[in-house]
Design goal:
3 helices, single chain
């Protein structure tokens, strides 16, 4: 009974009028989320040593926290 219900729900999901648009939008949003996660991760990894090299006498976290 449960498997039949899941099968019917899957068919109604695939056959809906806006399936293609909704799926494309979800895929696009997923790629954008991965892009921004990657960008912020790279910035976090690269920015700290770069600031440490540019300002050797100051702590990079204090430099970032002083920016408002």
């Amino acid at each position: 009974m449960i498997s039949r219900f899941i099968g019917l729900e899957w068919k109604s999901f695939i056959r809906s009028a806006n399936f293609g648009k909704g799926l494309a939008l979800k895929i696009l949003m997923g790629f954008l989320a991965l892009y921004f996660i990657t960008i912020f991760l790279v910035l976090g990894v690269v920015l700290y040593p770069g600031l440490k090299k540019a300002f050797p006498d100051q702590d990079p976290l204090n430099i970032l926290n002083s920016l408002q």
